[in-house]
UniProtKB/TrEMBL annotation:
It is found in: Cell membrane. It comes from Verticiella sediminum. It is a multi-pass membrane protein. GO terms for biological process: amino acid transport. GO terms for molecular function: transmembrane transporter activity. Belongs to the binding-protein-dependent transport system permease family. LivHM subfamily. This is Branched-chain amino acid ABC transporter permease. GO terms for cellular component: plasma membrane. The chain crosses the membrane at residues 7-29, 35-52, 59-78, 98-119, 140-157, 186-211, 223-248, 254-275. The keyword Electron transport does not apply.
Length: 287
């Protein structure tokens, strides 16, 4: 069953990775720890659920709609609120995103109740056999799409003009205006893309986890740990950190029991934080 633990860890780690990419890039570019990121994931999961339950649309096919909706929400949040406060005390940005997180959770409770909801497609429960392990089709597809989304975002940052602007702003926020780059627009684009990735991650999470208004809380904690492990602002670091986090959880559950998986995972997180504070692939961002 060791092979099963390895496969489970990798499949779960891919989801953790894409859930952390948007969180990591927003933190790296703007220096903002977006505490509403978990709620964005939760909203993406509800988009997938209602697209499936009300319209009969496969949750994977709902990813573009969820990403577009969350992009507009993240973009608007940055333009209307965060751009106004991020030049002042950083605690204001932290407090603002924390308040938004509480608002989104409570609005979701009012609209959707606190009942757990599940997405059960025609292929849910079906799996293929690999050696002595079982690989569910839905989790394999979730992993594949998660890696694809992270890869596309990595390509976007390094092969498009908006991507170059985001990277340049992350490296030196004071100099980029001299190069004709408007930091406020870059921040809004970054926030929108981070939220869009969260929405995509939410759709994928709907295939693996029960959906509820508070599901984003655990994802926020995972995104924070994965970001520190991989390095703030690093897309590839977030993916590697997610895979590492998923493997540590899976092997801890296999060898020690489910109750120990979080303890061991956070112990690894603390060790990385002490030994290599910038993370595995992190770079020094400055402003």
């Amino acid at each position: 069953m060791l092979t099963q633990a390895l496969i489970n860890g990798l499949l779960l780690g891919g989801l953790y990775g894409v859930a952390a990419v948007g969180f990591s890039i927003v933190w790296g570019v703007m220096g903002i720890v977006n505490l509403a990121h978990g709620s964005f994931i939760m909203l993406g999961a509800y988009v997938a659920y209602f697209a499936f339950s009300e319209l009969g649309i496969d949750p994977f096919m709902a990813i573009p709609a969820a990403m577009l909706l969350l992009f507009m929400m993240g973009y608007a949040l940055q333009v209307v609120c965060l751009n106004r406060v991020m030049r002042t005390n950083p605690m204001l940005s932290l407090s603002l995103t924390f308040g938004l997180d509480l608002v989104l959770i409570n609005v979701a409770m009012l609209l959707f109740t606190t009942d757990f909801r599940l997405v059960n497609t025609a292929y849910s429960g079906q799996a293929l056999r690999f050696m002595d392990a079982t690989v569910p089709y839905d989790r394999l597809a979730t992993f594949s799409i998660a890696v694809l989304l992270a890869g596309l975002f990595f390509w976007f940052l390094r092969h498009t003009r908006p991507g170059y602007a985001i990277l340049a702003t992350a490296l030196d926020r004071q100099t980029v205006p001299l190069m004709g780059i408007n930091p406020s627009r870059v921040y809004a684009l970054t926030a929108g893309l981070g939220a869009a990735l969260a929405g995509g991650a939410g759709c994928l999470a709907s295939m693996v986890f029960p959906i509820s208004p508070t599901m984003g809380i655990s994802f926020l904690g995972s995104a924070f740990v994965v970001t520190i492990l991989g390095g703030v602002g690093s897309v590839e670091g977030a993916v590697i950190g997610g895979l590492l986090y998923g493997l540590v959880q899976s092997f801890a559950s296999y060898f020690l029991g489910v109750s120990y998986q979080e303890v061991v995972a956070f112990s690894v997180f603390l060790a990385i934080l002490v030994l290599r504070p910038q993370g595995l692939l992190g770079r020094q961002f400055y402003g």
